[in-house]
Amino acid sequence: MSTNVAEVLENAPDRVVPKGTDRGVTDTFFYDNKIVRDFGIATVFWGIAGMLIGVIIAFQLANPDMNMGTQYTTFGRVRPLHTNAVIFAFVGNAIFMGVYYSLQRLCKTRMYSDLLSKINFWGWQLIIVSAVITLPLGMTTSKEYAELEWPIDIAITLIWVVFGWNMFGTLARRREKHMYVAIWFYIATFLTVAVLHIVNSYEMPVNLFKSYSGYAGVQDALVQWWYGHNAVAFFLTTPFLGLMYYFLPKAANRPVYSYRLSIIHFWSLIFIYIWAGPHHLLYTSLPDWAQSLGVVFSVMLLAPSWGGMINGLLTLRGAWDKVREEPILKFMVVAITAYGMATFEGPMLSLKNVNAIAHFTDWIVAHVHVGALGWNGFLTFAMLYWLFPRLYKTQLYSKKLANAHFWLGTLGILFYAIPMYWAGFTQGLMWKQFTAEGTLQYSNFLETVLQIVPMYYMRGIGGVLYLSGVFLMVYNLVKTVKSGTLEANERTEAPVIVPTVSNNAGHWHSWIEKRPTQMAIFATVAILIGGLVEFIPAFVIKSNVPTIASVKPYTSLELQGRDLYIKEGCVNCHTQMVRPFRSETERYGEYSKAGEFVYDHNFLWGSKRTGPDLHRVGGKYPNSWHYHHMMDPTSMSPGSIMPSYPWLFEQEINQSTTQDKLRVLKQLGVPYEDDYIANSNEELMKQAKGISADLAKEGIEVKPEKEIVALIAYLQRLGTDIKVKTEEVK
Q1: Per the UniProt record, which residue ranges are transmembrane (predicted)?
Q2: Are 273 and 191 in contact (CB under 8 A)?
Q3: How many domains does the chain have?
Q4: If phi over 0 gives left and psi between -120 and 50 gives alpha, with beta otherwise, what is residue 10?
Q5: 176 within some domain
Q6: In terms of domains, do 584 and 468 share one?
Q7: Quick one: 570 and 484 in the same domain?
Q8: Which domain holds residue 709?
Q9: Which of 56, 170, 183, 675 could be bridged to 112 by S-S, CB 3.0 to 4.6 A?
Q10: 82 is in an annotated binding site
Q11: Residue 77 located in a structural domain
């Protein structure tokens, strides 16, 4: 029976009139390969963009001149652009590419709606473009991996719903009754990312470009790292595990090693992962019980994580001879190995004695990039090499180029990770080193920075090697595409209802494998338990955040300065959390208390110390020191790798936003009086004139309206709300 493809797609893109065969009644239908191709191209484009920005910021840390002297290209503003481009643009498009290809074939049907597929594609690209525009402009929430402002958050929610609608619609019309393990991970990914994004994005808008988190201080930190850790879990891990379960057996031409292991792997992983967020906040002001929960579940996480790795590697049993010849399998093997390494190191780093040395150092940067470059990057490259020849009905242009890409990428990872591990060990040990007399051996924080600058250069070289391999891949794929023709609508036939074929047939779990609604409900319950157990006590029981009477809200000038601190991305290099270690209290002052952060919307504890902690910097230096330090950091700290901020001395404080900011914060519980809000700009100028007059005493002429004055006011406020009483030694 002949069929006109155009006519079929116009009338019913999913099917043709059934016909009888010896297999029973079958349908002819067409897979949508064009949407897969589009997401593949976007994956490559944004991968290059995100990695190029990563190389730039790597060299910015080694050489401040690489900040290029403009406010739009400093490390503080560009670093979140790099993370968003790599995570949500590169990896995000790779997820959609892999899901849209595999889901159609696992369900034996075309995607539910071509229109929804297109909205998903173009909406996601517009979100990424909006990030490219807003982040360099300093429009950021400062919350790691969630920096985008509220209008973009709403857009992300809408497009994610479109993706889920399309996915569940496809599952509802599937011809294959049984849902393969990859689909379980896709369902868990959609549901959990939706919950994470909505809860963490609870914020109150000030205007179109500015908002404040609905949470403050300790509670904001708990929610953010519940989100931050599980963004890694359910955006960088679970969807890629689903893709591994589909593409690895295809590439190796072998069935999954153990279907039962995949069941244990799936349910234990999604249940345990959600609890582990507090391990990012060990020794901070977070309540001890929450920290302990994070440690316990992080250690437990090793078992299901390695269950997935073992299942992946053992799927290659009997096919290791192919690994020597096939670059796709090489990429997959290293990707799964990197996943295993990262998921071993994560639980290890969550142990308090290890975390005490590693946290805030470049060790964490190395750990994260082993997963990102190895697991996500290499598995994405493998999928691209596997998919494009099939989409274009041709052969890969050059296996030699693909092998060259593999070795360049592997060297790139080594040149990146090893120097960062070395830098992290160096930092952790130097920060804690005492002399025989009991004083800090390296009391000047800059001494530790100068020791690791060579490692930053090596890290940049590793990035160049890795990116060079990507350019080889682009050439290889372009030549592959030119040698074939895209089969935009791939014709196929399948029985109207495909009999269940499963390694798990007859097992109790097969019941849920046929029911996407029940699967979604059970998965949602599994991922909600951990979050609820951590959040409810933290928000309801007031003793978790003891208040301190001397802690007052920020003045209007200090608040404007704090927002400039956020705008410039200072939190990317400086923490505001003095941990209760002798090495830190000797260096910075009294350790941080939970009650000091009750008016901090958003929290600014940070996750990396490229520069010193600033929580006790208030009153430590005169106003003139901060003035000169922001104009030329090397004038106060010779050898500093911090960039200068000359625009702060030229631009004026935007006083039109002051009252709106205070009103929003009052709605969030900050006790501002109505009279103070009404006169906030007068109070702002009064305090600003005092700072300006103080600077004038040292021969520095600066108008009180300038942004530098507000930033100085904020820095001088930090850590001054509490006074520690010390007894005299008699």
Answers
A1: 39-61, 81-103, 115-138, 150-168, 180-199, 225-247, 259-276, 296-316, 328-344, 364-388, 400-422, 456-478, 519-540
A2: no
A3: 2
A4: alpha
A5: no
A6: no
A7: no
A8: 556-717
A9: 170
A10: yes
A11: no
Report which of 564, 644, 548, 659 is spatially closest to residue 604, judged by C-alpha positions. 564
pLDDT band with cut points at 50, 70 and 90 for residue 321: confident
In the block, tokens 């001054």 appear at 720
Token digits of residue 227: 């989100």
Q: Is 265 annotated as a binding residue?
A: no
Q: Is the dihedral of CA 120, 5, 168, 83 positive or negative?
A: negative
Q: Which secondary structure element, helix H or strand E, spans residue 637, and what is its range?
A: none
Same domain (yes/no): 467, 571? no
**C-alpha–C-alpha distance, residues 166 and 161, integer Å:** 8
Query: Who contacts 7 (Cβ-Cβ below 8 Å, separation ≥6)?
Result: none
**Side-chain-side CA neighbours of residue 588 (13 Å):** 29
Residue 418: which of 485, 369, 375 has the closest Cα?
Answer: 369
507 is in an annotated binding site: no
Amino acid symbol at 656 = S
Query: CB-hemisphere CA count at 13 Å for 534?
Result: 32
Q: Are residues 574 and 647 in the same domain?
A: yes
Pairing of strands 19-21, 489-495: unpaired
Q: Residue 622: inside a domain, yes or no?
A: yes
**Rounded to the nearest 5 degrees, what angle is found at the Cα of 380, between the Cα atoms of 376 and 384?**
175
**Cβ proximity of 696 and 624 under 8 Å:** no
Asked if residue 368 lies in contact with residue 339, where contact means CB atoms within 8 angstroms, the answer is no
Can you give the CATH number for the domain in which 443 is found? Answer: 1.20.210.10
The span from the CA of 121 to the CA of 547, in Å, is 47
Q: Are the beta carbons of 417 and 367 closer than 8 angstroms?
A: no
User: What pLDDT, on the 0 to 100 scale, is given for residue 508?
Assistant: 74
CA angle, 142 as apex, 152 and 81 as ends, to 5°? 65
Residue 177 falls inside a structural domain: no
Bridge partner list, 32: 489
- Secondary structure (DSSP) of 174-195: -SB-S--HHHHHHHHHHHHHHH
CA gap 523, 533 in Å, rounded? 17
Residues 560 and 490 in one domain: no
What residue spans of 556-606 are helical by DSSP H? 556-567, 582-588
pLDDT in tens, 584-623: 999 999 999 999 999 999 999 999 999 999 999 999 999 9
pLDDT in tens, 535-546: 999 999 988 888
Place of tokens 């190895």: 374
Average pLDDT on 256-278 reads 94
Last residue of a domain, one of 455, 475, 496: 496
DSSP of 254-269: ---S-HHHHHHHHHHH
Cβ atoms of 376 and 240 within 8 Å: the answer is yes
pTM of the model: 0.94
Crossing angle of helices 327-349/302-314, nearest 10°?
170
Interior/surface letters 328-342, b for 16+ CB within 10 angstroms, e for the rest: bbbbbbbbbbbbbbb
Rounded CA-CA distance 445/433 in Å is: 12
What is the rounded average pLDDT of the residues 429-457?
Answer: 96
Q: Give the other-Cβ count within 10 Å of 274's Cβ.
A: 26
280 is in an annotated binding site: yes
